[in-house]
Design goal:
There is one protein chain. With 243 residues, this protein is of the alpha+beta class. Helices cover 19% and strands 32% of the residues. Strands 1, 2, 3, 4, 5, 6, 7, 8, 9 and 10 form a ten-stranded antiparallel beta sheet that branches. A hairpin with a 6-residue loop joins strand 1 and strand 2. Helix 3 crosses helix 5. The longest helix has 11 residues.
């Protein structure tokens, strides 16, 4: 985790203005659990354009999948719009987070709600994981990784694969109460973030250990001036350059 943090802190990226959009493209695969067992669906391609205005905003950007482009609306309950923050992490908001790992971890523990039946440490690990990838201030990225290393139960594995099969280094935490294992995958050479997966850590009603529940691989990201437009060049793990 220290090597990942050091690499993230040295990785230069674009500074994003409030009137721009952060673009990301992911390959996503998930399981339907309505039957009580995990039925893994097909791989889907998602593109997102997230507005960087501090807000609050009623329209947060755009999402494109399956040939459809739809608006991203404010979070449920945000009748006046969703401001920049934990549920809408703009580049400017990310740059305001503490860079001391202890302070940053305390910040997340104070703002991550408890979920019945889940370990609180797991909830914080997954909340931090939801921010990874894309375009982020280097100091913030480095601090997130250093803070994550302090969460009890976080460990690493030398053999991991993202949702599309890229081999990498895994940073893992398993919720022993709920039985779910969340893994972040990083490139073996330059430690860029490749994606994440969620699987049962042991046999559960959903299936045996290792059954895919959800997975996402970051294919590209960049910054654009208008939602719906792709960057002329996107940084992609496939080309050896990442977030």
């Amino acid at each position: 985790m220290n090597r990942i943090s050091v690499a993230a802190g040295k990785r230069a990226g674009p500074v994003v203005d409030d009137d721009q959009f952060v673009y990301t493209r992911h390959k996503v695969r998930g399981a339907d659990l309505t039957s009580g067992k995990a039925v893994v669906g097909p791989m889907e391609d998602y593109e997102k354009w997230l507005a960087q205005e501090p807000g609050p905003l009623r329209t947060l950007g755009l999402i494109r999948s399956g040939g459809e482009t739809l608006p991203l609306n404010a979070e449920l309950g945000d009748t006046g719009g969703t401001p920049a923050g934990m549920s809408r992490p703009t580049y400017r908001w990310l740059s305001t987070l503490p860079t001391d790992p202890d302070e940053l971890l305390a910040y997340f523990y104070a703002r991550t709600p408890s979920v019945e039946g889940r370990e609180r440490d797991q909830a914080v690990f997954e909340k931090i994981g939801s921010l990874l990838g894309g375009v982020m201030p280097p100091d913030t990225a480095a601090a997130l990784y250093r803070a994550s290393a302090k969460i009890p139960g976080v460990t690493d594995t030398p053999r991991a694969r993202d949702a599309i099969g890229h081999a990498g280094i895994g940073i893992v935490r398993e919720d022993t109460r709920y039985g779910i294992r969340t893994e972040w995958v990083f490139d073996q050479e330059d430690f860029t973030f490749l994606g994440s997966t969620s699987t049962p850590g042991r046999r559960t009603s959903y299936g045996k250990a290792g059954t895919l529940l959800s997975g996402a691989a970051e294919i590209g990201h960049g910054v654009v001036d208008e939602a719906g437009h792709r960057p002329a060049e996107t940084n992609t793990p496939e080309s050896g350059v990442g977030s």
